[in-house]
Specification:
Blueprint (H helix, E strand, L loop, with lengths): L17 E6 L6 E6 L8 E8 L2 E8 L2 E4 L8 E7 L5 E7 L2 E9 L2 E5 L6 E7 L5 E6 L5 E7 L2 E4 L14 E9 L5 E7 L7 E5 L1
Antiparallel strand pairs: 1-2, 2-3, 3-4, 4-5, 6-7, 7-8, 8-9, 10-11, 11-12, 12-13, 14-15, 15-16
Amino acid sequence: SFFRTSISRPLSRAKTSWNGALCTTRFASCSNTVDETGGDDASAVRCFGRTDQGFRPFIWREGTMTELPLPPEATSGFASDINRRGDVIGGFWVGDELGGALVWSNGERALLPGLPGLVPFVRGINDRGDIVGSVGDGTGFEVPVLWRNRVPINLNELIPADDPLKSCSRLDVADAINNSGMIAVFGVDVCVTPSPLSTYRL
């Protein structure tokens, strides 16, 4: 069953257990993050780099690079995160427009659904396979989303109406999720002018 949650007070800074790095391959360069918490796939790195055919996502593991397949309509793509099972999330562009979100798992590629009329963008995945990110319409409007069993859930709908912070908090983008299910979400305090960008914990 889906859970209901509440909003914590804004965090001063979002903290994660990931460190940025840079790897160089036959691609010009790629951004990557390394899971330092251990586990079966702790040595795997998710990357994306520029080629003469646009950006491409790949896995870098023990000195071997494996490109991740994109849909045939994609002109470029990226990898956002990887968990200790080796599941990778990312997305792709079609021309200048975001085409959708992807998950690569057990050698297979799957599209993640968005919400009606909105395109998904994924940012984080935990070891259970829960995925967080947002959906938007390309104009700057975004809704924070949790994908559980690859089913999208609007996180705003999980906040009870009597939550004391709900009336002042507009949640926009879910950025990360840990193995306990806690989610870091970017949003704004609409009861303050000008409205500051804040990070909330759900």
